Amino acid sequence: MRRLLLILLIGLLMVGGLGWALTRPADLERDLAADHQPDPEAGALVFTAAGCASCHAAPKSEGEDRLVLTGGMGFASDFGTFHAPNISPHPEAGIGSWSFEDFARALTRGVSPEGEHYYPAFPYTAYQHMTAEDLRDLFAYMQSLPPDATPSRAHEVGFPFNIRRGLGLWKRLFMAQDHVVAASGNAQLVRGRYLVEALAHCGECHTPRNALGGLDRSRWLAGAPNLSGKGRIPNITPGELSWSEADLMGYFTTGFTPDYDTAGGEMAEVVDNLAQLPESDRAAIITYLKALPPIP
């Protein structure tokens, strides 16, 4: 009996140790372009392309108030409701005390400065593809924004999803490090892929998810249920989206569809962000969308 209990104890310790190792938050192991001189002006474009204010500005804020990143937007899901945190440069309520390495690890690994996993409502599965130069430029720009002392709201997540350590397994299953679309040799397509798959994180809304919340990459950008419960996010592959390049450029610039309807809901904010980017970036996104395999 003692031998059996010892074997069981050793087995439990081995399983526990393996689980602890598999769920360990990832370290920041990449070139951080330490010799790059951060450019806040370039960082402002990264900030816009990534839609940071769309989630982290106070709801219904307008104009310059959109740059006060108090947080507060809620994201309802089958796992609970997640709230965008304060990411202003306030030293206590925001990220003002973070180092650049803290910032880069959060965006590309989904890990907090304290070593905890972030929930993937924060789209680090997309931001992991950001270049080190863009990360440095973005950090420099965000440090220049107004600090705000508004406390971040706690997520409303019940057991077992409130055990953040388990997100380490989720990341191993669903945080794919490769790109969805091959784009070698075509500079415009490469740029479009970077904007769609990384900065603008379009897949987070336009791609369906499995039962564990991972993106179904086999139906990339083929439409998904709207988490708000109101309708569906549309299929934007050529299997459904038949707009011409001119139609898409007009929509990304003005918000008007070819039928003279207008972008609404969260997409209105996306269009507002895209309209602030160089026309060449909007053209690159269009090239990417036209290159997607058509999915019915």
Automatic annotation (TrEMBL):
Alphabetical list of PROSITE patterns matching this protein: CYTC
SUPFAM superfamilies in UniProt: Cytochrome c
Protein name: C-type cytochrome
KW Transcription (keyword) present: no
Source organism, top-level taxon: Bacteria
Keyword Metal-binding: yes
Pfam families given in the database record: Cytochrom_C
Keywords per UniProt: Heme, Iron, Metal-binding
Domain Cytochrome c: start-end pairs: 38-146, 187-293
Record organism: Sulfitobacter aestuarii
